[in-house]
Amino acid sequence: MPATPEASPTGTAGELWIANTVTDLIQGDVHEHLPLEAIPLAGDVLGLGTTTSLDNGELTFLRNDAGDTTIWKCQASDGGIRALRSGDGSANFPYVCFSAEASAVRVPVDPADLKTVAGAPLQDQVQQLVERLQGQGRLAPAPIVGVRAELEWTSLVITVASKLCMGQQRRNAAIASSEASDGTAGRSLYELLQHYRLAAEDPGDPSDPIRYLGASLQWDCCGFYDADPASGRVTVPVEGAHLHLHGCSLDLRHGGHLHHEHPGSSLAVVKRLALYPLQRLHRLHSDLAIEDLQLTDGTLRFTVVNRGAMDVSGVGVAVVLDDRYGGHRFLRLPWLPAGAEEQFAMPLELDSGPHRIEVIADPEGRILDQLPLQANNRASLEVGVG
Questions:
Q1: How far apart are CA 155 and CA 260, in angstroms?
Q2: Which of 84, 1, 103, 3 is nearest to 45 (CA)?
Q3: Where are the alpha helices (H) located in the chain, listed in sequence order?
Q4: DSSP label of 112
Q5: Which residues contact 320 (CB under 8 A, 6 or more apart)?
Q6: 3-state secondary structure (DSSP) of residue 71
Q7: pTM of this prediction?
Q8: Are strands 95-99 and 144-160 parallel, antiparallel or unpaired?
Q9: N or C terminus of the chain: which is more exposed, having fewer CB within 10 Å?
C-alpha cells in the first residue's frame, strides 16, 4: 500500500491510523475502504472498525496465542463472530482505526486502581483513571488512549452495525435541511443498530426488542478513550462519549460493540486492564486524479489514478465538452484500489473551431477526498480543430 503524506502504517509505538472516521460513517454512504492487507497485525495492534455494507458487522482486534493480533468480525445477523482472513470477501473496511505495534507504550493497570464503585458507568471509571494516571505521570498525555481489558458483566447489551448509511446526512445538510434528516441526526446512533443482550438468564419478555443471546458474560475487549470525543475520530461525536469498546466473549461465541452506557449493562468486575497512550494520529485518505489527458486522431485519452491509501468504489468520471455540462458523457468505475489506475480511450468527434475538454473524477462528490487533494480531480485541455 502506498504511504500517505502523514506516515506509513508501519510506524513506531504510540501511533494511530484512522481510515475515515466515525463521523464519516454515520453522516453518509462511505465509498472509501481500507483493505485488510494494509493493516500490519504483527504484535500488539489495537483497533476497531466496521465491515462493508454488503456484509455488515463490527471489527474487534484481539491478541492471539502466537503473540500477534487477529481481527474478529462480529456479525449483525446473529451476534456471532469469525476471524477474518485475506480474500474471504469481507476484508475491506469503510471505517477502521488501528495502532502500530504498541507493546512498547503498554501501561498495565491494577484493576484496583479503577476504584470501582458498584454501578458506576465504565466510561466514568476509565475517564477518572486516565486523568489520575496522567496527573501522576504514570501515563503519558495523549489525544487518544488505547484500551485492552478483560471484563466480567452482570448483564451486557451489545450492538452490531446493521446499516452503514445514516440518511446521507452530511451531503444533504451541506445544501438543505429537512425535518426527517434533523430527526435522524438527533437520535442516538445506537438506536439504529441491532441490539443483543447477555445475562445469566433470559428475561423472558416477549415485548423486549433486545434479543437474548445467552450467559457469555466474560469479554476480551479492545478500544479507545478519546480526549476529544466531539471530533468523531474514534467515538460517536457526542459530548462525553469518550470510550468506544469492541469485544468478543471469552468463549468466542459472540461479539460486537459494548454498549456499556446502556441501562441494561452492568459491570461486575474488571479482571485485566492496560492503557496505551497514542500520541501521533494519522489520517488515511483516498486521492483521485485525472492524468495524461490528450486528444489524438479523434480519440480522447486519459488515466484515472487513485494516489491515496484507500480503495474507492463507485467512482464516477464526467467528460465535459465546451462547458456544456447538460450533455456530458459519464463513466463509472466499480472499484479502484489504492495505488491503481485505469486508462480510457473515448472516440470524440469535434466540429471545426476551438474547444475546451474537461475530465472530472467524482463530479458527484461521493468520495471523501480532502480539500487539499481535490485539485487534481480534474484536468482540462484546449484544442483547435481545423
A1: 10
A2: 103
A3: 22-26, 122-135, 169-173, 179-186
A4: G
A5: 328, 357, 358, 359, 360
A6: strand
A7: 0.88
A8: unpaired
A9: C
Pairing of strands 95-99, 81-83: unpaired
- Residue type present at position 71: I
How far is Cα 314 from Cα 75, in angstroms, rounded to an integer? 25
244 within 8 A of 154, measured Cβ to Cβ: no
Question: How far is C-alpha 199 from the chain's CA centre?
Answer: 29
pLDDT of 345 over the 90 cut: yes
305-334 per-position pLDDT tens digit = 999 999 999 999 999 999 988 778 999 999
Percent of the chain with pLDDT over 70: 87
Domain count, the chain: 2
Domain that holds residue 88: 15-283
Domain boundary among 221, 248, 283: 283
The CA-based dihedral angle spanning residues 145, 55, 251, 204, taken in that order and rounded to the nearest 10 degrees = 110
**Which of 201, 213, 229, 236 lies closest to 157, judged by CA?**
213
Q: Is 5 part of a structural domain of the chain?
A: no
Backbone Cα Rg of the chain:
24
Q: How far is CA 149 from CA 111, 246, 268, in A?
A: 10, 10, 13
Pick from 139, 132, 95, 93: nearest CA to 114: 132
